[in-house]
Records
---
Amino acid sequence: MPDEWQETARLVSLEEADLPAGRHTFHKEALMTFIHQSDAAANTPTPDKRRRFLRPMFVLPAAACSLAVVAAGLVTLTGSSSNSPTAQPALIAQVGTSTSQGVPQLLNRIALAATKKPVASVGEGQYIYIESKFGGTYERTVDDKTTVASDGINRRQIWLSGDGTKGWLIDPTNTPADGESIDRINEKGASEPGRLNAPTHDYLATLPTDADTLLAKIYKETKGMGNNPDQQAFTTIGDLLNESLAPADLNTALFKAAAKVPGVVQVQDAVDAAGRHGVAVARLDETSGARTEMIFNAETYTYLGERTIQVRPHGGDSGKIEPGTILFTSAITARQVVDDLKEVTSSRA
């Protein structure tokens, strides 16, 4: 219904997997993930529709599904001029040159750097605080006119308990100005356990740290998701690096696993949502023509953020999605353990 458009447009958010959340870069595989998990709903807990994670799958209520048009990896948001959110120009960047040369060596250096970086533990009653910047581009239809737009670059803050049962989110595109409580309570009122595409800090500690074993698990548990198994595996690895605080040995295993995914390349110069330049490990989705890039500091190999950029002509439903369009971009600017919800530290990621 027209009076539902604004609300449901905002519910096309990120939940916890295929498309990392807050993401207004609406990739086609995210919706495919939603459909896949809906088919398995009898055996899988239903995620709380309030949850919004920075790079996950869609949480689409039935009303929203009627407003979503999947095309070119984007969702077209439909509404009227009186109730649609204010839009900004599409996010555009130069498409960096990619090469398959030196990828294993680069990921080995990244993995080695990860082993040397201490990761704080999360104690009883403590929270993981992650601050980021994010933005994305989407097709927007108002009064039968379709344009390519964005919500600009926004600041996002999230606090999560180790078991994921308590949290707080401040996201100007999804929550009130002072934020809102988030949890893992499903529609039956039960606590939803962590899983690969909806991990908690405690769940991450249970994942295998052998790269081959970890990659096999990723392929098995994401079977049928995304446009193809290799792209979905690469996307899942990126999701596990975003709004999380994984053990150092798991980070190392993730980087080694990424090196084993076919089609992975490196991009010498990629820019995150905070404007920081770095080297990227990337993979092109042959179906959508969009390239997902995990960006690292070129000297310290610290994870900076992620970007999905259109590199091949596709057009989308409107025919206006051109190479260089940034479908999604993020930058982790703080990642700390704090003692209270809504506590902000001065330390940076």
Note: Residues 37 and 44 are 7 Å apart (CA to CA).
---
Amino acid sequence: MSRARTARRIAAGAAYGGGGLGLVGAATVGLVLAELQFAKRTVGTGLPDPPRADGLYGSEFGGPEQSPGPLRLGMLGDSTAAGLGVRRARQTPAALLASGLAAVAERPVQLRNVALSGAMSDDLDRQVGLLLDDGAPAPHVCVIMIGANDVTHRMPPTQSVRLLTSAVRRLRLAGSEVVVGTCPDLGTIEPVYQPLRWLARRVSRQLAAAQTIGVVALGARTVSMGDLLGPEFAANPREMFGPDFYHPSAEGYATAAMAVLPTLCAALELWPESDRLDVSRDEDILPVAKAASAAAGQAGTEVTAARGPWVLLKHRRRRRVQAEDLPTAADPGPDTASAGAWGPP
């Protein structure tokens, strides 16, 4: 069965109450057996908690008291969204996105990161509640990065997509724009060997495609995390992966953030490029299932709604991360710390 057809079935099962639809049929048995070996490894263990990056970024563009006030950015998801594996707040993807968004918008950005290391999609309801249920104004835009733990813990894909779409629906109803970084390609992780590597790639890409189908219908945009965003990881795994060879390094997170930033800015109508197609970059208008399948196999690809069942498949320009772009020991943290509140609306 093609990836597009499988993803369409998963998304339909999520929307209409199907519960047990598998991703690869009988191959699931192999996943269970291989995961016993995978679980013996120390991937992701022994790392300190990710640094807290909540606070105000881009204060040079005005204080929180100045009209119209800062943009509010919410970050949700798992250890990748939390920034597990780096030591400094400025190195987390949320901080990098907040800094980049402030620079593009020329407006301060108030960041609140509620992502949790080890989280699966069933934690998103709690995370959304942290952003919406304290009486503070909703974020202007949210970024969700989720899916890897759903695969490794064998959450049924229909349940995974249903939980994600429920979270996106709540955020959209609250007035937030949403960008989803879909399930990464787990077949690129160095400690994963064949035959699990092949199966992990197939399962994670199918889930990524199904996530796209589910959330684009709600007005969200997706960015394919793919093989953790670009040939840099394949060419330089020692630099792009952290000490556990599973989570990204500071360079890896920066590369990922630079791929998500254009879509984040486009969601707020800040990016100079419009949503018109650029055929020179192989962009197209496609049925959602076909676009979702294509995006899952090509890291950094954006999918956003166009009209009816048709969506835009876009490859927004991003610059390659240079050494001078990365935080140094002299870099400060957020301009002001904020543990729980957005600050002025």
Note: Residues 20-26, 320-332, 336-340 have pLDDT under 50 and may be disordered.
---
Amino acid sequence: MPKPFPHLSRRQALQTAAATVVALGLLLWWLLPLGEDPPAGTITFSTGTKAGVYQKYGELLDNEIRKDMPDLKVKLETSAGSQENVRLVANGKADFAIAAADAVETYQQNGDPGADQLRGVARLYDDYVQLVVPSDSDIRTLADLKGKRVSIGVPNSGVRLIADRVLDAAGIDPDKDIQPRAEGIDTGPKLLGHGLDAFFWSGGLPTDGLKQLAERSAFRFVPIQPSLVAKLHAEGEPTRYYRATNMPASAYPSVQNNRTVPTMAVSNLLITRKDMDPELTEWLTRTVIKSRDGIGRDVHSAQLVDVRTAIYTDPVPLHEGARRYYRSVKP
């Protein structure tokens, strides 16, 4: 026979109730800042191309923002990608955007307008470079791209920036040694084997555009070896943001046949400007962190967003509002 619950004295009951109230209060404080009204108004958020991870992440984050800040309207804008996003934020044409760290550093090194006003909100997840060819292609290495029709990404995209550097490091002139094409993840997959011999993509894993391609057509990835990444590192900043890694076998199971693929990755940042309202930025940072699991159910790469690593927004300093949030949750 189960033992009855022990009888609690009045004092013990009060202590238990008080502890419960404190625990609930801390939970509510984590989720919503008590005593503050959610920010209102309108912000512009620049994402990326359709069928890309930036766009999908932005849409899902917008849904979470509506829950936390119902009076804040978010205008989602598509773009070419990282390079354009950095310029839009720096010039005040977008309030927030996602951009790869190498694109941010390149903009700063060029001394382009507003570079000194850029600030970080959070380090998000990594983009993986994915060089895609038809399964029956004779392209096995980067050197085999010579003379081929290769999409190197649309102008002002992060893909274009990386593809040009990878090709150059491999001894291939993008303007002379290949037939360059400018396709994004929304158009490149449809043309593979039908006007394109290969295309570069840099994005989170998995990317919807490639998942859809895997459902209707066979393709494979051309490896990018660690030796090439080391060569890029030797060139100095901003190539220091590239790291040699392996694309996990689980990224595109039907394509990779349980095999990893050597490649390179670069971290993505959520950026804004120095003059963005600190309170709004603090709220947005909180939403980004606490919505990780919810967004991660649809955007797998978003599961890697973590409060312990989000503060590392090099090469830009943290925005003051983001800093407030991270300090408030510091263990």
Note: The chain has a mean pLDDT of 91.
